[in-house]
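Morning, I've got a small favour to ask if you have a moment. You're getting the sequence in one-letter code plus the fold written as tokens. Thanks so much in advance, here it is:

===
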Amino acid sequence: MRLKTLQSSVPRHSDAVSAVGWSSSDEMVSCSDDHSFLKWNLVTMEATQVATLPDSLFPTSMSWFPRSLTKGGNDVLALTSSDGKLHIIARSGKIEKSVDAHRGAALSARWSHDGTGLITCGEDGAVKMWSRAAMLRSVLAQMATPVYAACWDGSAARVLYSCHDSCYIKSLKTQVSPIKWKAHDGLVTCVDWSGTTDLIISGGEDGKFKVWDSFGRVLFTSASHETPMTSLAFSPDGSLFVVGSFNLLRLCDKAGWSHSVERLDCGSVMAVGWSPDGTQIVAGGSLGHVVHAHLVEKRISYRNWDITQAKTNLIEVRDMDSEVAREKLDTRDRITKFSMNHDHLVVVTSKQIYIYSSTSWNTPVLVDLKEGSVTLLIQTEKLFVVADGGSLYSYSYEGRYICEIKVPGTGGNLNEANVALSNDTIAVRDKNDFAKLHFFDPNTSKVQGDGALTHSAEICCIGLSQCGSLSQRVVAFTDVSASVYVSLVNSFGANPRTAKIGTLVEQICFNDLSSMLVGLGEGKVSVWPMPSLAFVDRDLLQRAVVEKTVNGLGKFPHLVNFTKNQVVLRRSDGSLVPIALSPFAGTLLAHADASKWDEAIRLCRHIGDDVLWAILAGSAAQQKNLYAAEIAYGALEEGEKVAFLSEARNHPNKDVRAAMLVLLTGKISDADAMLERTGNPFRAIMLNISTFRWNRALDLAIKHKMHVDTVLGYRQQYLDEFGKRETDQKFLEQLSKYEIDWEHIQEQIAAEKEKDH
């Protein structure tokens, strides 16, 4: 991927361009110290003067009101100037309001992602928060030296600002001291905070740019440049950022490594801005030049296909299995996003969606976009979803529009980390409450399964299993403590609903053909062939985890995809690392899903791996094939469970068999309730006795007027073994009514067992 730049040979502005932006994806604007407010034609790079600003107005920064909240072109922009004023300017260039914001120059202004607030900073060291109508709300900070840059996080709950060589993060919701850290050896000149990835970038006079997490921990430090960093900005989806310096524009991945470096002839790049669709960049130079750049040569791979964006409206598709098979796909408008999965290539342009099948490249299906710029594109086997920042829209591969799903909350953009898709479910993180997930049906837009899931901590990354029915659909997620959890989309009232399956994992991804889950963290790859084992038998889950240590990944690796039996990682330096996994786990899961138990058992016996036996035991127990489960547990040397399964398999009462399978998963209360509900109170009483749930056992015995003396007898035997005396008033009361006669108790138990046969 690289930038293709275009600038006019003669600068249209006669002085430094310190404020640039996008009013829409097809229109960029610039303000200069020559007091002109220009609108630019992207094709010819010719400018039209919109307005002439007052002679006393020398702009320092520009921030457009969030486009996702205006449904079309941006309404207004905030402009700061060297005389300390904050100006609210309409699209036409008319100044609607001006206020005195700072003593000395007002250096920067930035709208929050949800449009509810505006922050400014200036030479007087103040950081101030304003309403949309430019009414002062509060002074967030007062520093002793100038504050050169400030910005918001994605939830508008925290503010980042820089002063001298340090950066500060201030929370707006809690009264705590700001987080402070030394960012650069010299003055920090520019900062930005991605609302989607929660990463921070900073540039300084030391000639370096750095990537940080939201706690101020450094993730990447660039080599030192000859000149200071003068501007930088994240793309709308947070996957890229651009850095400007003297005659230089550098495109970088969010991990910090460079895609390309463009040498310019415009002086220092004073300001940069991304278009709303994330495919174009505008930059303003100190010599009066305005530079337009767009992304080209973006490349993705899918199985044997290699797809490259050669031009703004041309994609080349190459079959790696053939030396001559090459297709060139033209589009009418500028390409903004494209993705290939499940043998379909989906290309999104500024006005249409092109849907190609890998079996017929010459006959695409065309769909007109409703409105807005597409910021997210996710595919699954039967449908795909696009997002415009606020809502999700689902389409079939035949081009049929299915429905619109409105995401709860306001604020930051949607990205692949906080949205997951399967054929029957969309999981999306709440925009305001990061600890909450919502589930929707992509075919009807109605609530799916349990509707929502609330976690105890903020959720960072989510994924949905791609195989099986809705009742088997598993959602996996990581939280801020780098722990991995799984939950059923439809739990049917089961408790606990969520299970922790791993730690020290930062990224996760489900396999495209099976239920396998892969996680990346701490320099190793962890694979859970069957995450739902957490709800079947947690002992099996621990025995079924496969871990691989991968050396040389660097500090900030990325999990790209997990297809078939191959995991693809990207190192911190940008290189791809394919990791091959054993194909046997996927084959075994396919046999289990197809109920081919004889083939599954033969495969496990042939390979002789405990991981496969654990998968087989869990799959068989989940699908109630007790014969296969008994064999698998035997191979794992789980003698007690083999005996338990043998008893369950040979029990004549199907209700008792079902309850015993529930008990195998460790859900004692559910098994107890099932036995009582199906008319087996004796079994329920004995279950509670064997698990030392004495009060529940006594309650059942009294309720059904049977085996009270049995409960009292086993309770007394239990206390005698530990040298204790009965102190529970409920049991003392029953002991006064019943006499413990072990011969009679044994006769009662024998009679109950005889009934089962």
